[in-house]
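A quick aside before the break. I want you to see a complete sequence-to-structure record at least once, exactly as it would be stored in a machine-readable document. Don't worry about memorizing anything.
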Amino acid sequence: MKIESAAFLDQADVMLTRAECMLSVGLNEDAARAAYLACFHVAQAYIFERIVSASRTHRGVQTEFFRLSRDDARADHALRRFLSGSYEFKTVADYGVGPGAVISAQAAAGAITTARRFVDHFRSLIAIPNPGDIATREAA
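That is the input. The structure line, written in tokens, reads:
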């Protein structure tokens, strides 16, 4: 595994720990946002392992992650959709105002649970190279 990918994975773990801490003190919006960010960092690692580059923008990471994971038969396709779906948590936490900008403790806890599954699943795929990636590298 590349050093950069390992750093992204470490940051994902930090974000999950923060999410759980935030949830425990009722910071639901921040907890859900941190859950999304954990997935974002794992997506960056997944991308970096395949193309030795990673976008820093949320849209760029989501687009490239979907492109690269689309044909990865090992990828849990329901989990990969969580990356883009959970971006709404970040939007609410960062920009939301008023009564519509509230994330329940239950929704935040669900986001953390799913984010942990996302992190674990895609971390395992990063650790074991996709056979298609190896064939592509050897042909280059």
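Two observations worth writing down. Residues 134-140 have pLDDT under 50 and may be disordered. The longest helix spans residues 28-51. We'll return to this after the break.
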